[in-house]
Amino acid sequence: EVQLVESGGGLVKPGGSLRLSCAASGFPFSTYTLNWIRQAPGKGLEWVSSISSSGSDIYYADSVKGRFTISRDNTKNSLFLQLNSLRAEDTAVYYCARLGTYFYGSGRPDQYFDNWGQGTLVTVSS
Amino acid sequence: DIEMTQSPSSLSASVGDRVTITCRASQNINTYLNWYQQMPGKAPKLLIYAASNVQRGVPSRFSGSGSGTDFTLSISNLQPEDFAIYFCQQSYNAPLYTFGQGTKLEI
Q1: d(CA B29, nearest CA chain A) in Å
Q2: What is the rounded distance in angstroms from the CA atom of residue B21 to the CA atom of residue B37?
């Protein structure tokens, strides 16, 4: 059974930092692209960052670029998100999510989030 | 960025009803469209991928259709556990994925 378990959330002051972790099990971790997706209280979903299976390809949403850093440790089946220079608008539940792919036969595949963790709440407030 | 707009934002229905939720993309996204269900306090769950493919384990009363800019999620014979929030998501502009704002399905 695929399991993704986030940790590291909490209350932090504006300008502060936090490091989120996601422990994975039940699948070949080193072969999957992983993502962080967040959801502000009562709001919709926002993709935050993506890291390829080897860690060589990394992408960020414009809203977090330069402040957040995604990384992974394939020897420990773990995904991380370092959050720096936090702002009130970063308050959200942060989910780690595995990327699945569907190949049409030609062209690029559809990509979707086929497994999610339970989320960890980050609250930025003075 | 590709903007995804869902309608309606909320929807009232009864057990046994059939409902349809619409998702519109701001540009042509072919069939790079996925649907998720989120129960209160829970993580989203994948329902439909590539516009019309039902994820393993998802009941057959869920179906998806569409291509280009207009997509629909249909739920037939509504069950009590179907009352949730539904989100669409595009992967045409991967890895800059975007979601719709959500549709709350309530009794």
Answers
A1: 10
A2: 12
pLDDT tens-digit series, residues A9-64: 999 999 999 999 999 999 999 999 999 999 999 999 999 999 999 999 999 999 99
Burial (CB count <10 Å: 0-12, 13-18, 19+), residue B79: exposed
A28 close to A37: Cβ distance less than 8 angstroms: no
User: Are A118 and B43 an interchain contact pair (Cβ–Cβ within 8 Å)?
Assistant: yes
Would you say B105 and B83 are in contact if contact means Cβ atoms under 8 Å apart? yes
SS3 B44: coil
Q: B45 CB near a chain A CB, below 8 Å?
A: yes
Residues of B whose CB is below 8 A from A45: 36, 44, 87, 89, 99, 102
Q: Is the CB of A46 inside 8 Å of chain B's CB atoms?
A: yes
Nearest to B58 by CA among B37, B88, B77, B42: B37
Does residue A105 carry a pLDDT above 80?
Answer: no
Mean pLDDT score, A87-96: 98
Q: Report the amino acid identity of residue A125.
A: S
